[in-house]
Amino acid sequence: MTDYKKIIVTGGAGFIGSNFVHYVYNNHPEVEKIYVLDKLTYAGNRANIEEILGERVELVVGDIADATLVDELASKVDAIVHYAAESHNDNSLKSQDEFIHTNFIGTYTLIQAARKYDLRFHHVSTDEVYGDLPYREDLPGHGEGEGEKFTDKTPYNPSSPYSSTKAASDLIVRAWVRSFGLKATISNCSNNYGPYQHIEKFIPRQITNILSGIRPKLYGDGKNVRDWIHTEDHSSGVWTILTKGKIGETYLIGADGEKNNKEVLELILAEMGQTADAYDHVTDRAGHDLRYAIDNTKLRTELGWSPVHTDFESGIKDTIKWYTEHENWWKAEKAAVEANYAKTQEVLKK
Ligand SMILES: NC(=O)c1ccc[n+]([C@@H]2O[C@H](COP(=O)([O-])OP(=O)(O)OC[C@H]3O[C@@H](n4cnc5c(N)ncnc54)[C@H](O)[C@@H]3O)[C@@H](O)[C@H]2O)c1
After folding, report:
1. Of the residues 155, 175, 261, 295, which has the fewest C-beta atoms closer than 10 A?
2. Can 277 be counted among the known catalytic residues?
3. Which stretches make up the NAD(P)-binding domain (predicted)?
4. Atom from ligand 1 closest to the CA of residue 12
5. How far is CA 124 from CA 16, 218, 257, in A?
6. Which residues line ligand 1 (CB under 6 A)?
7. Is 127 a catalytic residue?
8. What pLDDT is attached to residue 220?
9. Most confidently modeled of 86-95, 162-171, 334-343?
10. What is the Cα Rg of the chain in Å?
11. Is 266 helix (H, G, I), strand (E, B) or coil?
12. What mean pLDDT value characterizes the chain?
């Protein structure tokens, strides 16, 4: 049960936000109304929530930085769950305006409204605000599952315009709690995978490359380690924090899923019947973070959360199946996404 009968989910037509909207719709019938506030940028897609739009779920197409619109919606609800963001690191290296606008000014606009109407506010952030962790060259897989991990006490050290604008938004949320009593919590989650993820991102890009007869592409040597979590586990984590979290606290969400990019690509290739070397190496991204790893102890022990999708292989199998069965969802954009990558990524000769 929850005190929050009417909520706004910003970015609820994007990858993770739409998964959260489905999660609440399916598991929490006591939530009577979900307003999805989404600008429908290239990353937002009405189709992600089409089948549940109706009396309980309403899509409001608009900008989170539009103070008049945000005020009008905020006056009708008990809580805001804030997912909307410009979220792609590569894009943030090409142009920064939208990152400042949405991630910083957008968040500022929302917390001002939450403050005015005394709403519960949950801010969805990323582990990328912490920068990266070192490789452990002495360990197989470079220390995956071992060694240092991020906690809510790790100092911020963002590397890109994406992660620094997310870090800036986290800081103003924290300050609004201290200065104005904003009823906010923050979550910093690791890399998500699952259905509805835009095909510009690593896992769906590789899967849809293979489905399109294009060789997958790996940045550099592929040693960069990410801590993967199924997006449904991210949703249950956010719901747990929204309903049980302590105001002013930050919780890290991760499912102990460390893998380097090469391993993930080789798993996808194997699951899709390809040989382990059927891909190209491409020039690395500037400032590419080495390793992320989340210590999820606080969320597990203080709030009793645990992930359900703990078998990465089976999660990847399901994700491959979803992209295979939903070609209509991604096919039209494939050529443009690859043309965009081709401008900056050069295939390296072996
Ligand atoms: N993708 C990951 O692995 C990951 C990991 C941890 C945290 N996060 C965080 O989760 C959130 C969602 O990430 P995602 O991968 O689903 O992103 P996404 O890019 O798939 O979706 C973002 C959504 O926000 C909407 N949006 C963008 N600008 C907007 C604006 N000004 N006003 C209203 N809506 C706007 C887009 O239309 C889109 O629907 C982000 O805050 C991101 O930082 C993502």
Report:
1. 155
2. no
3. 8-319
4. 39
5. 10, 28, 19
6. 10-11, 13-17, 37-41, 43-44, 63-65, 83-87, 102, 106, 124, 126, 166, 189, 191-192, 198
7. yes
8. 83
9. 162-171
10. 19
11. helix
12. 93
In a 3-state reduction of DSSP, which class is residue 287? Answer: coil
Question: Is the whole model's pTM more than 0.70, yes or no?
Answer: yes
In angstroms, how far is CA 323 from the centroid of its own chain? 18
Of 38, 63, 86, 128, catalytic: 128
Mutation to probe ligand 1, out of 87, 98, 130, 329 (largest number of atoms < 8 A from CB): 87
Selection from 88, 164, 83 nearest residue 124 by Cα: 83
- Look-up: residue for tokens 């790790």? 154
Ligand 1 mean position, distance from CA 124 (Å): 9
Q: How far is the CA of 178 from the centre of ligand 1 (A)?
A: 26
The single residue of 4, 135, 162, 292 carrying the catalytic annotation is 162
Q: What is the C-alpha to C-alpha distance for residues 113 and 103, in angstroms, rounded to an integer?
A: 16
- Name the nearest CA neighbour of 255 among 210, 321, 305: 305
Distance between CA atoms of 123 and 156, rounded to whole angstroms?
A: 16
Domains along the chain? 6-199+227-257+289-310 (3.40.50.720)
Residues with Cβ within 8 Å of 335's Cβ and at least 6 positions away in sequence, in order, are: none
Q: Reply yes or no on whether 325 is catalytic.
A: no
